[in-house]
Amino acid sequence: MEEPLVSVLLASYNHAPFVEAAVRSILSQSGVAFELIVIDDGSTDNSPQILERLSHEFGFYYKHRENRGLVQTLNEMLTLAHGKYFCTFASDDVMAPGRLAAQSQFLETHPEFAACAGQVKNLRSDGNLEDTVDLRYAKTQEATFEEILLGKAELHGATEMIVKEKFAAVGNYDENFRFEDFPAWLALSYRYGKIPVLRTVCCYYRILETSMHRNLNFIYKQILAVIEKYKNHPAYSQAVALWKTRWFSSLAYNQKREALRKLPQLATCTKTFWMHFPKLFIPRIFLKY
Pick from 277, 115, 125, 121: which is nearest to 195 by CA? Predict the structure, then answer.
């Protein structure tokens, strides 16, 4: 078999209704040699049976074991990867056609970059795909470390493609945190400089109520812990104030009682915070998220 240029790492966990579509969307990629590596991280549904069947059908690497968490699972799969580049993929998403070829070709012709990102279209809870890309990510053409630190440039973790050797040099995924993308973007841009964002649609991203990113207190607490690693950077204090404001603003929209409870923890003496403060008293129906 041809040596893979790209390794796709799929960590599976309790996505039995979606995991077969995820695998088949990856295996439908063309235009580049790639490998698929799958580890089921202790699913309690019938995901392992589905993946076992698919691995026999298509011959990709598959292992089922006890639950260890997403970040540890991704690092385990990295030890098995043979590609020059790699991308991770969630077991409930769908990979857009041509994604692997487009991103690997870009990195092959732009060796100065350690990674690139791309665009997503959201898959709504009813299963319908939105017509246009998510504008939060479409507005970014490239992201510097400071822009990522300050939340000025957003990169979607489902669209990553990373140079494996360069990622190893920053220590791979940081197992001190329970999510992978934000710490990785910061580590790569801090060491290697800006990360370009391609116009290529890389992922049809499934919006689920059970998604970890719905847990606002968990996510923002983790973000503040991540940026603590860069407390000697000149923009660190500004970053703390901005992420606390985002945390409060999100709670003021979604969970007003929780926003009030956390007010002493999240309030900052900044104009930006006090511009968002009135959201606490405005009914959600009148607010723009």
Answer: 115
Confidence (pTM):
0.93
Does residue 243 belong to any structural domain of this protein?
A: yes
HSE of 228, CA atoms in CB hemisphere, 13 A: 9
Reported as a single tens digit per residue, the pLDDT across 51-98 is 999 999 999 999 999 999 999 999 999 999 999 999 999 999 999 999
**Residues 271 and 142 reside in one and the same domain:** no
What's the CA gap between 106 and 252, in Å, rounded?
Answer: 41
Q: Return the bridge partners of 40, or none.
A: 12, 64
**Total number of domains constituting the chain:** 2
What is the phi/psi pair of residue 51, to 5°? Answer: -70, -35
Asked if residue 193 and residue 113 are part of one domain, the reply reads: yes
Going from the C-alpha of 136 to that of each of 50, 242, 289, the distances in angstroms are: 34, 17, 12
* Per-residue 3-state assignment (H helix, E strand, C coil) for 191-204: HHCCEEEEEEEEEE
In sequence order, what DSSP letters do the residues of 110-165 get, joined into one string? -TT-SEEEEEEEEE-TTSPBPSS--HHHHT-SEE-HHHHHTTSS---GGG-EEEHH
**What pLDDT digit, counting tens, does each position of 214-238 carry?**
688 999 999 999 999 999 999 999 9
Phi/psi of residue 91, nearest 5 degrees:
-80, 0
